[in-house]
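Repro:
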Amino acid sequence: MSFCHHALQSNGPLVVEDATEEGRFRDNPLVTGPKHIRFYAGAPLRTPDGYALGTLCVMDTQPRAFSDEDVTHLRDFAAAAMDALEQRRRAEAHRQAEQAQRASERKLRRIVENAQDVIYRIDAEGRWRFLSPSWKELTGYRPEESLGERFTEVLHPEDQSEALFDFEGRAEGPDRLLGREDRFVTKTGDVRWVRVRGRLITEEHGEVEGVIGTISDITDSRRMEAEREARQRAEELLEAKTSLLNNMSHELRTPLASILGFSEVLAAEGDEQQQEFAEIIGQNGKRLQRTLESVLHLAQIESNDETDLTLEPTDVADAVRTVAATYRPPAEDQDLSFEVRTPPEDEETRALLDREALEHLLDDLLSNAVKFTNEGGVTVSVDTGASAVRLRVEDTGVGMSASFQSGTLFEEFTQESTGLDRDYEGTGLGLAIARHLVEQMNGAIDVESSPGEGTTFTVRFPRLAPADTMDASPTMDASPEAAPPRAKE
């Protein structure tokens, strides 16, 4: 163990006048080695909290006498050295603290100077006491031009009294947060919408010192909201126009029927070219007729005219087999598989439905499935749950995006691809009509689809028990088996 280590373990100075006569030092390498230490006097250097830094010591190769006065001097020297070290430590700590503070101030200054939002502080009287540089970009005024003015002076005249009332109410009430949307009048007279956020700051005794917070320019978002509302109003006008058009379209039925009738007559007579032209007229006339019927049907549904629906016990499986038979040939013409799955005939698949409406619903779903499937196949199936008859139409077609499913899928005149260059023909009315028909027959319709993977429509109707009669009022229970799935987002 070294001399200094022994000195640090002692409460005061350690004096060794002749190390060769001290048993604990006699064999120390510092004594027996080339240094030949004989004399040692050392005092520990300790911080005010008792931490040992080292020793202040005197060593010699010759034995020496060391008086009490020398010990006192050594102790004083050690204290003076410790004071100097402590002063240096404090100075260094102070320097580092100042350096850290300056760095923090620079960082805060950069944040304030580069912030897009205005950072502000107003006093208890509502006067600007600090404004960040972005104030000029927002209002056209330099910060120093506005400092000292009341915050209401930059507000639109119609907003001033309410904003001042809100500010004074916050100052007197328990709510310390401020949040408003107001209009600022800029230096050039322009009006900009802003969102003002802030928090009341108080002194030690609880008196309000002012508010500190941020001001955000929301003019663009306000403009977009106004444009959205304008579009919505335009859409409402368009719907009214469409409704008027639907009423007028009734006048087209009679001449259209005549065109179709004469096209059939022409197709049965005349030469080959005349028959070809007549068939084209007939095909397009029938297409127009289908569109017209869809429009009129939708108009009838949306007017809540349900007098044509007769709800009576209807075999869903039988309706599926009947309608599906008409779609097998066109599906096979496209090299698509077409599969129909229904329960055994002794299994109850009846529900209180309108048979014609159910077949119309199946037409819409199967027509879409075949039209939007280029490869793979279409499967239509019926199964039953505890209290529901479940109808599914699955395809491996183009599928739909999540945004379209959760947005306009069941709205009128919508397809995911729109315009004259859309990929598939159609009016965009089929699913809108399907949804209305399902709802009128107390059912539920949902969809699961992914782009490029296909689509599955699931329709559920309350199932009739075998003993139910035509005036039964079946309901679907809330079991997982009967609960309709949600469209995948």
